[in-house]
Design goal:
alpha+beta, four-stranded antiparallel β-sheet, globular
Length: 77
């Protein structure tokens, strides 16, 4: 997958923290917005996405985002 985002941030909400790619929330394969309970986990996920693929246009793999995969699987189940 090619990296299309420049910045990654987090946004607190009633249902937890959302991770935003260029201000837009990440979604799970089923369409729900991905949310995590803890701020530390949200920041760690944001950091792995900030590093994934290097810069805009770089190649990234979902192997680069293990916390995202774990959190996403947890939310879906």
């Amino acid at each position: 997958m090619r990296r299309f985002w420049q910045t990654v941030t987090i946004e607190p909400g009633d249902a937890g923290y959302a991770i935003l790619l260029d201000g837009k929330p990440m979604h799970l394969p089923g369409g729900a917005v991905m949310r995590v309970d803890g701020e530390r986990l949200a920041r760690a996920i944001a950091e792995e996405w900030q590093l994934a693929g290097g810069t805009t246009g770089g190649e990234m793999s979902f192997a680069d985002t293990p916390l995202t995969r774990l959190a996403g699987t947890t939310q879906q189940r």
